[in-house]
Amino acid sequence: MLVGKTFYLRGGYLDDSLSFNEHGTLSGHSPVGSFTLNLIEIDKVRITKHKVELDGARFGQHFLGALPSEDPAGAVDRVRITPKKKVVKITIDREIVVKPKKVKGKDRSAKAGQKAALASSEGDTAAEPAELSDADQAKAEIAAASPEERPVDAGSVTTTTSPAHAAMVLKQALDNIFASGLDARMMAAMPEFWRLYYRAAAAGTDFRPADAAVMSGDAVDRKAKLINDIEAPSNEYAQQCGVAGMALYHAVIGADGKPEEVAVARPIGFGLDENAVEAIRTAKFEPAMKNGRPVPELLDLVVEFRIYSKRTSAGAGTDTAGKPSTAPLPGPYSVQHP
Q1: Helices (H) and strands (E) in the chain, counts
Q2: How far is CA 286 from the centre of its chain?
Q3: Residue 60 DSSP SS3
Q4: DSSP string computed for 223-247
Q5: What are the residues facing 245 on neighbouring strands?
Q6: Cα–Cα dist 244/316, whole Å
Q7: Of these four, 165, 231, 248, 274, which has the most CB atoms within 10 Å of its CB?
Q8: Torsion angle of alpha carbons 198, 76, 68, 287, nearest 10°?
């Protein structure tokens, strides 16, 4: 099911060591990030009685500048984020299979009589030990296991007498942790600006504002104007992997000059689009004018991301020394390697 395949990590967890309980809920805490930073390729699977251990590598998605109408799925590079000789480790607890309790009533009495007769014939008069409860069986099994074999969240592990049920619980946990593609649950967890992008892609069209009263640039007397520069920060993953270029976004600028709907038009990926949209939402604009009054307008906005000589997650405008990179950048969606 897993080895050699690539999945989205639901939840966007960015730690390289992740532990989940038997239901696929994260144990502990992890920083989270964009789905474009959360492709996991599984290399190894180790299954024990109490847990499943996965080794893999994280990949980022670098979009190559396709509009939604140009099949964005076909214009994406996968870039390995996990350094060589390093792995992403994921551990999933398993439901514990315990021995079924002995039958009651006549069957139990009959079996007890058989055991008593056998013990008498063998000269053994010792009493049969008390039967352990499921919880006690589980505790005993966990206590007997070596520390590295024990479940991460032993207190929440449930028991079953059915190996089939334990297998079903594990499959459900895997489905709660991984997605083989951008399914409905992945889409529902995305920010609205990504949902608008993929909705347009599914329809084979470009973004259209929800409000039909929003005007285009050729329908107004004066276009909306950006007052301050949009400086979206890069991030450590993009800096380390040399992901740079320009991304395009649609933004509805309301009659009050404030950004309303924002949608990705030509994404760049690697978690940078989230930074760009946040920068757009906090930017200041003068509204468009029509017949002497302000009106909402749909603007196209370009945001550029650069690679800096000192690889940090500093803002797009300056590096840690407060000076912009002077190295020339190639065209949009290009990669500049050190």
Answers
A1: 7, 16
A2: 37
A3: strand
A4: --EE-S-------HHHHHHTB-EEE
A5: 305
A6: 10
A7: 274
A8: 90
Mind listing the pLDDT tens digit of every residue in the chain (338 residues)? 999 999 999 999 999 999 999 999 999 999 999 999 999 999 999 998 889 999 999 999 999 877 777 776 678 899 999 999 999 999 999 988 877 766 555 555 555 555 555 455 555 545 455 565 655 665 666 666 666 666 666 666 778 888 999 999 999 999 999 999 999 999 999 999 999 999 998 888 888 998 999 999 899 999 999 998 888 999 999 999 999 999 999 999 999 999 999 999 999 999 999 999 999 999 999 999 999 999 999 999 999 999 886 544 344 443 323 333 333 333 333 333 33
For helices 272-282 and 192-203, angle between their N-to-C axes, nearest 10 degrees: 110
153, 21 in Cβ contact below 8 A? Answer: yes
Measured at the CA of 37, the angle between CA 281 and CA 77, to 5 degrees, comes to: 105
Classify 285 as helix, strand or coil. strand
Longest dimension (CA), the chain: 109
- The closest alpha carbon to 28, from 37, 43, 17, 36, belongs to 17
Note the pTM of the prediction, 2 decimals.
0.77
As beta bridge partners, residue 20 has 26, 92
| Sign, CA torsion 179/180/183/189 | positive
Find all residues with CB under 8 Å of 284, minimum gap 6, and list them. Answer: 226, 227, 228, 257
Domain boundaries, the chain: 1-185, 191-305
Give, in words, the CATH class of 191-305.
alpha beta
- Residue 317: is it exposed, middle or buried by C-beta count within 10 angstroms (0-12/13-18/19+)? middle
Outline where 214-335 has alpha helix (H): 236-241, 272-282
Please, is 243 exposed, middle or buried when counting C-beta atoms within 10 Å of its C-beta (0-12, 13-18, 19+)? buried
> Do 333 and 326 meet the contact criterion of CB atoms below 8 Å apart?
no
